Amino acid sequence: MIQKKICLVGVYATGKTSLVRQFVYSKFTDKYHSTVGVKIDRKEVVIPSGAVNLVLWDLEGRDGHGDVRPSYLRGASGIIYVADGTRPGTFEQIFELRALAEKTIGTVPSVFAINKADLTDEWQVTDSQIAALDASKWHALRTSAKTGEGVEATFQWLTEAMVVGGKA
Amino acid sequence: MTIGAPGWTLDVFGMSDVGKERSRNEDHFLVATLNRALDLRYSNMEGSNALDRFNAVAAHLLVVADGVGGVAGGDLASGSAVAALADYLGPTSGCCYAFDPDQEHEFIEKLEGAAALADQRVREHSPSGKGPATTLTMLLLLGDRAYSVHVGDSRGYHYRAPRLRQFTRDQTMGELMVDEGVMTEEQADKAGLQNVLSGALGNMYTPEVGLLDLDAGDAVVLCTDGLTKHVSDEEIQEVVASEASAQVAVERLVQAALDGGGSDNITVIVARAAPEAA
After folding, report:
1. Is A51 helix (H, G, I), strand (E, B) or coil?
2. Which residues contact B226 (CB under 8 A, 6 or more apart)?
3. Which residues in chain A (114-133) have CB-CB distances under 8 A to chain B?
């Protein structure tokens, strides 16, 4: 079976671990656990061309103490950049993190997951900002690790992009 | 014990104490190095010193396990699990030396395989499925990368100045209830569920797999709950931050747990990536 490594990258507390938990275990918790280093999970995904074993690397988020370690990105076939739609600063830092990743491993298929879409009252990312991402050929999705909105679609799209190609 | 590793020297020490209230120690631990097979003793071959590279350290293995089951043989469970890891990883140490970063997934699968074998060995002591079980927290250090496999409520901490952080999550019924939103942490504490395992080898378990890269000056601590019942994260951090010697840090931590009551067996490993002298 084809195996692909996906890294989840973003600022701390944007919901990277929760997205993996929702995708792999269909579970969500409000309790926050910060990831130290990398947590690894697996899930098999079926796309039209066959089954793919995804190896999900949930990377420790960037915070005031340290940046994303480039060594963790090595060998990744795809990246999910995760921002928190209620914290505009996390959105802006994704562009820096993408530059870091591209410098490290080159251009690989990627998705921009704008997470916490369930927090509608606090949501601060405008539709025009999301449209601007699409215009720059960066696939962006609203996601909610809590409700599951956009989660399956995020991983499914990226899997097809990695295997079939033609999407970056 | 001070052993060599790329970029820094690993200073590592471990010890286990029965504590003040238990009659026997159901914890086991292991600190080992995986070496290449050839151990050059004497030779008149030209350039024989070059052969000594075959005796270089390939990896370091650190394990703590806390058996549960009382008279049913918690010590047997933790001992079997640790021995199984040594059995599995010893003969495959070549995979550490021939490690291919592009095949890292396969390497991680091997570590999960080691945990699966340990689970199988523990179950051999429990034909009815109601026998002893054990926690397991394992680190395999290969170069500057530490791979972890964790089951149960023993803990792994990573220290990078100035802060100590737990890189494992406690697999307890209390954590599970809180995660599921069924209880608050206070309710889980009150119900005593923070001490009830939700995952253990020999029982139902889902290994938590991860990794972290170490820098010079970093340290890792592996311990059973005999330490963390009596010594706070802040106290562990203070000891690790202030003691340059792994052995002294371990001895201080074990003593702190004893001074705090020593209600359980106490096992601690400290490994420090000590900067090499210029």
Report:
1. strand
2. B17, B19, B27, B66, B257, B262, B263, B264, B265, B266, B267
3. none
* Distance from the Cα of residue A131 to its chain's centroid: 18
Structure tokens at B129: 């499925």
For chain B, list residues with pLDDT below 70.
1-6, 36-40, 47-57, 70-72, 92-101, 129, 278
The pLDDT, as a whole number, for residue B4 is 47
Read off the amino acid at residue B142. L
Residue A124 is which amino acid? Q
Q: Which residues of chain B make contact with A38, given a CB cutoff of 8 A?
A: 210-212
Contact flag B158-A36 (C-beta cutoff 8 Å): yes
Rounded to a whole number, what is the largest CA-CA distance in chain A? 43
Closest partner residue to A69 (CB to CB) among B181, B209, B213 is B213
Q: Please name the residue that has the structure tokens 């703590």.
A: B64
| pTM (predicted TM-score) | 0.91
Side chain identity, residue B218? D
- Per CB-CB distance under 8 Å, the chain B contacts of A54 are none
Question: Please, are residues B133 and B67 in contact by the beta-carbon 8 Å criterion?
Answer: yes
In angstroms, the Cα distances linking A75 to A70, A164, B108, B215 are: 11, 18, 14, 21
* Chain B residues in contact with chain A using a Cβ-Cβ cutoff of 8 Å: 101-102, 104-105, 108, 145-146, 148, 158, 160, 163, 165-167, 169, 178-181, 208-213
The helix (run of H) or strand (run of E) holding residue B82 is helix B74-89
Contact assignment for A75 to B180 by CB distance below 8 Å: no
For residue B115 the two structure tokens come to 């945990």
Instruction: Please tell me the predicted confidence (pLDDT) of residue B234.
Output: 98
* Partner residue facing A29 (CB), from B105, B167, B179: B179
H-type alpha helices, B98-220: 104-123, 173-179, 185-190
Which chain A residues are closer than 8 Å to B108 by Cβ? 40
What number is the ipTM of this complex? 0.91
DSSP label at B217?
Answer: T
* Chain-chain contact of B101 with A75 (C-beta, under 8 angstroms): yes
Determine how many CB atoms are found less than 10 A away from the CB of residue A69.
Answer: 17
